[in-house]
Amino acid sequence: MQSLPSQIQSSQKRLRGDGLHFLEHTRGAASSFADRTLSAGQGFLAETREAAQALRGEATDAGQHWLGATRDEAKQWARFVATQREAALSELRLSLLPGGLERRLLAGFMVSLDGLEHRVEARLSELERRASLPAATKAPFRGYDELTAKQVVARISKLASPALESVAAYEQAHKRRATVLKAVKARLAS
Q: 23, 84, 100, 160: which could form a disulfide with 95 (CB 3.0–4.6 Å)?
């Protein structure tokens, strides 16, 4: 059996040897880690520089393209303004001729009357279309015609089936609002 001091000495030798072994291997691994990290950092730096140069090149090219397009657009506007100026001056010269102002006013009235005629024809067609639909002349409830589609849809959830059918028929014959018609259809289906 060993004495305590010799046991301590043996333990110290073994631990010192294991510790030195640990330090040698750790130092080697740390050195390898540092070398690999340095190499990776240098590679990252080089790639970052290349990417920055590529970005700068792309941005420069795009900026030059944009600048050229802006110049072209400005030239087109300058031409447009110049032609409009000439057209306006030409109109002014014509209006200063004897009867020119009267001619312009009558032409303007003619255009307005043509527009009014088209609106009257469209309204008459709409009235004829409504007359050909089944009779749903009475509003489904008081104040219906003053309500927005959103307001009508809000009320639909509270109506019974006969009232829903009345809303559908009246809406189809009059305003034909898709929102209202879809809401009625959905409510009837539920």
A: 100
The ranges assigned to domains in the chain are 1-80, 138-190
Give 127-144 pLDDT, tens digit per residue.
777 666 565 568 888 888
Q: What is the value of pTM for the model shown? A: 0.32
Q: What is the 3-state secondary structure (H, E, C) of the chain?
A: CCCHHHHHHHHHHHHHHHHHHHHHHHHHHHHHHHHHHHHHHHHHHHHHHHHHHHHHHHHHHHHHHHHHHHHHHHHHHHHHHHHHHHHHHHHHHHHHCCCHHHHHHHHHHHHHHHHHHHHHHHHHHHHHHHHHCCCCCCCCCCCHHHCCHHHHHHHHCCCCHHHHHHHHHHHHHCCCCHHHHHHHHHHHHC
Rounded Cα–Cα distance for residues 65 and 72 (Å): 11
Looking at per-residue pLDDT, the higher value among 114 and 150 belongs to: 150
